[in-house]
Amino acid sequence: MQTIAFDAASSSNTTGGSPFTWSHTCTGSNRILIVGLINAAGDQVTGVTYNGVAMTQINKQNVFGGTEVYLYYLLAPATGSNTISVSKSSGNMAGAAASYTGVKQSGQPDASTTATTGSSTTHAEALTSIADNCWHVSGVFGGTLNAISAGTGTTVRVNNTTTQNAAIGDNNAAITPAGSNTLNFSASSMNWASNGITISPAPDIYTLTAGTGSFTFTGNAALFYRLYTLTASVGSFVLTGVSATLTHIIKWAMPSRNSSSQSNQSKNSSSWVNQSKDSSTFNNQTRN
Q: Residues 189, 211: one domain?
């Protein structure tokens, strides 16, 4: 599977009305954009967009005696510099955003949670991931305008403390095997709230390059059925090059990813094509 990576962060704040906007730049492939918001006047947000595309609310909570905090996300946000736009009624607001690459483009978030801590210099958010190699990302909010810094196993990507206190932090690493992870934050003593998620990585893309009478396979194990039907056990295939005719092959099961090519070789060589279905092995694989 692909490796998740941090892309970019941004933030802004407002004391005005609607919409509340700022610019964020996304790059890379298999992207996700995450936006955390804090509004002093309670639950006033009616929608968030990026480049005019509606974002999905993950969770929200009412904290600090009437303040509302939110977390939104968008898969496949447009690349380049575009506008985050928050529709709201009133209240001082701060927003923080972070984008990531290498993220699965469906089924997000992997898991989610909310957490609060009373007056304290530290805050911890624990969350258990479901899929392997997830990242843990959180929108973190403070009851006063104290700069938030990272604790153990945590990276703070952005922190806005102008009108309200909004930050984005993550664990900056794959959680493997899947299980519990804790993000840790610190600041001068204040009340805390956070909305967190785990995001799962995109699957690998495997490539089968076909030439006249031969082909080269790159990637993990796969099931090859007769002619041109290819079924991947993990990920997907891209077929390029000149079509290869796979005659006399009924089924090739779970080949080694290190098999380099198959072209008119004997059954015990490192590559083969057009072998009899009754041959007992092909590159040390069972025939069915």
A: no
- pLDDT tens digits for range 168-215: 999 999 999 999 999 999 999 999 999 999 999 999 876 666 665 556
The residue among 45, 86, 88, 38 whose CA lies nearest residue 63 is 38
Cis peptide before 109 (omega within 30 of 0): yes
The encoded tokens of residue 45 equal: 């947000």
Contact indicator for 35, 54 with CB cutoff of 8 Å? no
pTM score of the predicted model: 0.75
Q: Which residues have C-beta within 8 Å of that of residue 20, sequence separation ≥ 6?
A: 12, 14, 85, 86, 88, 93, 95
- CA-nearest of 77, 97, 82, 96 to 30 is 77
- Residues with Cβ within 8 Å of 257's Cβ and at least 6 positions away in sequence, in order, are 217, 218, 219, 220, 221
Question: Which domain range does residue 173 map to?
Answer: 5-199
Last residue of a domain, one of 171, 199, 227: 199
Q: Give tens-digit pLDDT for 236-273.
A: 555 554 444 443 333 344 444 444 444 444 445 444 44
Report whether 73 contacts 108 (CB < 8 A). yes
Q: Are residues 125 and 239 in the same domain?
A: no
Q: What angle do CA 34, 37, 43 make, to 5 degrees?
A: 130
Q: Which of 183, 199, 215 is the last residue of a domain?
A: 199
H or E segment and range at residue 98 = strand 93-101
- Only one residue has tokens 């001068």, namely 188
Distance CA 22, CA 104 (A): 26
Same domain membership, residue 227 and residue 92: no
